[in-house]
Amino acid sequence: MTNPVSADRPAATSDRPGRRPRPGFGRRDSIVGWLLIAPALVYFVAFLLYPAVAALYYSFTDWNLRSSPSWVGLANYTDLLFDDVKFPHFWKSVQVSLLYTVVAVPLTLVAALGQALLINAIRRGSNLFRLLLFLPVVTAEAAVGAIWRWLYDPQYGLINIILGWFGVPPQNWLNNPDLVIPALAFISAWQCGISMIIYLAGLKGIPLSLREAAIIDGAGPVQRFRKVVMPMLRPTTFYLLVTGVIAALQVFGLVYVIFSAANKSVTGGPEQAGLTYVLHLYLFAFRYDAMGAACAMSFILLVFIMIITALQFKFVKQEAA
Amino acid sequence: MRNVRLAPIYIALILLAAISVVPFIWMLSTSFKHGHDVYTKVPSLLPLDRKTGEWSPTLENYEYVFDLRGLGTAFLNSVWVCLILIPAKLLIDALAAYAFARIPFPGRDKLFVLMLGGMMVPTITLLVPRVFVTQELGLFDSQWGLIVPNIASVLDIFLLRQFFLSLPGDLEEAARIDGAGRIQIFWRIIVPLSKPVLSVVTITSFIFHWNDLVWPLVVLNDPEKYTLPLALQQLATAEAGRSYYIMAGAAVAVVPVIAVLLVFQRRILQGIAFSGLKS
């Protein structure tokens, strides 16, 4: 990757009289530059920078959208963490999101790697398979939720019917607290197409000479995979792991669709088994009108994501050393 | 010999492709079935009559969700929002990326790093204050409230800038000596050379905003203004248990995006690999 802030060609202005001035980087450039950036900059300040600062401020206040915020210090944070009368499901939602992440991310990565290895092994038809396996990715969350509710239908859903052919008794996937997370994780693995494409790019990047050398040394397919392919794919896996964890911790739209369709009012599924952290956050912000608490939750999430990402980087550095 | 070795690989791929595609076929077939043909013990991937087994598709589910469940309006709303938002966003992003890549001015690189840093903040953290800003601007519960708060994208600016940096500078240099201004250079040289990356950004933006549920969910109240994902979510809640209506609604949301994917598959898949590896 090129350095994101690599410098341009050095500025050279010459105003020697009698010569046509070389096209230079002067005042005019400054004006044009700022003008071109201005719309993006306004957006950045209004919808990124200011909201980030405001979210931090509001997290220390008691606030709904109608009243003006009143300062309460750390009360939102301490209540969320310790007051299980005011926020009875906070820790439950943390647990749900962590469990979902721990189940869904590895499952998705394994599915993606498996698909990429298979596609990489063939010539004819590889574009077609790549396309078909990518279809679920471009599908709207609302549609994914609707389709999978129908597939998971306990009585007439395709999943139970197909499992029935193999003698598996019908399951009430989305109403059994123990099955909610596996059911959601399977949808996540179904949508592994982006990771698959990135793995495929990683596989193409492995020099052919390395594989050939391994074959000459008499390494079988399993050994080649473990000793050549996996180490070469480590940066890709790490990237997908970090982004996958960050995305999984924020899963919201899908569970919102799935569990609002079930109960008309969103509660997060049977025994809150599908009450992910961000669904919980959404409910506080937009149903219970507790914006301050919701902002505090969003900052706890931000800090948590930063810690997890830092830990993952540290872990990989240690592995490399 | 080679074919024998490859056979298991193809079988595995066909199975995986079936898992990925059958849900869509199931969606389509359910959406074309009469209500009384949907709930059968033996699943049928084709819209057949449950008693006679004859071919009997219907469009009544589509008519119902379009006319009585507001999906027609929602479809037009989605089209309208994308028609305004995507070109505006592309222009703003490309101009900013061009300046970041090519026009040196004091403070430019610091600003760019600051923007990249801002991209690291999870969107969920920004959700509540963004709604507040939208409300303060008087855009709450309006389609401009879907457009203005999404009018630029730091990620797209980053991708476009990286591409512009990779373009050779000679042509620009020559144009400048001929007296062309920055804007002229942008339109006459940069844009024509950047068609591949511009189309990737356009297509991925379209897919993202066409599919987006969360932002319309928090900004819109009036059902007349709903975009497709939101209308579909409402449909799925209101008609829970009538999967033929819900699947017709889902098909309306899904089919345009799949059409775009089929037409632009090469660009999209290359773009994913590119942007995935860069970021």
Automatic annotation (TrEMBL), chain A:
GO biological process terms, semicolon-separated: transmembrane transport
Ranges for region Disordered: 1-24
Stored InterPro entries: ABC_transporter_permease, MetI-like, MetI-like_sf
Pfam (any one): BPD_transp_1
Record field: transmembrane: 31-60, 98-119, 131-151, 179-201, 236-259, 290-311
GO cellular component terms attached to this protein's record: plasma membrane
UniProt subcellular location: Cell membrane
Keywords in alphabetical order: Cell membrane, Membrane, Transmembrane, Transmembrane helix, Transport
Main subcellular location of this protein, as a coarse class: membrane
Gene3D superfamilies for the chain: MetI-like
Similarity remark: Belongs to the binding-protein-dependent transport system permease family.
Protein name: Sugar ABC transporter permease
UniProtKB/TrEMBL annotation, chain B:
GO BP annotation list: transmembrane transport
Tree of life domain: Bacteria
Residues covered by the ABC transmembrane type-1 domain: 75-264
Keyword Translocase belongs to the record: no
Record-linked InterPro entries: MetI-like (IPR000515), MetI-like_sf (IPR035906)
Predominant place of localization: membrane
Transmembrane segments: 7-28, 78-100, 112-132, 144-164, 185-210, 244-264
Keyword Electron transport: no
Span of the signal peptide: none
Membrane topology recorded in Swiss-Prot or TrEMBL: Multi-pass membrane protein
GO CC annotations, alphabetized: plasma membrane
SUPFAM superfamilies hit by this protein: MetI-like
UniProt subcellular location: Cell membrane
Family indicated by similarity: Belongs to the binding-protein-dependent transport system permease family.
Record protein name field: Sugar ABC transporter permease
